[in-house]
Design goal:
14% helix, globular, five-stranded antiparallel beta sheet, mainly beta, single chain, 242 residues, 1 helix
């Protein structure tokens, strides 16, 4: 009788262990499905940040690393690329290229779809035709105008902003590239690249003596690139626990 009871207890214990193992396996499988869910992407990258990046216990995951938009006026394309550099900072590159195999004379428009980018302490004093912003949350073409840009420069610093240049009536883009020349009413200025690169590790809140820097907390963010002809490109990135 005792032997039968012992065997019954052993079988019961083995069944409980088996159920626990199966339950744990199901939970792990559910976690993997959740972790791998999301929209399809063209390319992905993930890296652990450092103390100078978004945080020692966080990493940045970029689901889509580049995107572009065919533009109005015809012949131009706005490009945006984001990545994570060796220090864990978010690297942003944007440019405007001429797709034509001939010179493209483009009238300036000052038609910014997202005017308050929070990216430059002196504003767009040199009248660059492209700008960028970092938004907290996931935004697309249907709702980005409702976002508020994060301030990515230190508002406590004193900035000696130059005088804004005279209005530029048009730009002359060289064939098949992002090289352009500014034209004023008085004549031509030297050529310049219609491109910009940035390295961002977080954002600032407050002003003056109470300004405070924050490394990106966990969550989803959106990088916005825009040009003065009303074109926008948006790319998301996620800060997640390492």
């Amino acid at each position: 009788m005792e032997n039968q009871e012992s065997r019954s207890r052993a079988r019961l214990a083995a069944s409980i262990v088996l159920l626990v193992v199966i339950g744990a396996s199901l939970i792990a499988a559910a976690y993997l499905r959740i972790g791998q869910s999301g929209p399809s992407t063209t390319s992905t990258s993930s890296t652990s940040s450092t103390s100078s990046g978004v945080g020692t216990t966080s990493s940045v995951r970029i689901s889509t690393s580049s995107a572009s938009a065919q533009c109005t006026p015809p012949g131009l394309k706005l490009n945006l690329q984001i990545s994570v550099n060796a220090t864990g900072a978010l690297s942003i590159f944007e440019n405007e290229t001429n797709l034509l195999d001939r010179v493209n004379n483009v009238t300036t428009a000052n038609n910014w779809p997202f005017p308050d980018t929070g990216s430059e302490p002196c504003g767009n004093f040199n009248q660059s035709p492209i700008e960028y912003a970092v938004l907290q949350g996931h935004y697309d073409a249907s709702n980005y105008t409702s976002a508020s840009a994060l301030t990515v420069y230190d508002p406590a610093n004193v900035y000696f902003c130059p005088t804004m240049t005279a209005p530029i009536p048009y730009l002359l883009f060289a064939p098949l590239g992002d090289n352009a020349s500014r034209f004023y009413a008085s004549g031509q200025e030297g050529s310049f690249l219609v491109s910009a690169s940035y390295s961002v590790t977080g954002y600032w809140t407050g002003s003056g003596n109470i300004a405070a820097f924050h490394q990106f907390p966990l969550g989803i963010y959106t990088v916005l690139a825009e040009d003065e002809w009303g074109n926008v490109v948006l790319l998301p990135f996620t800060v997640q626990r390492s």
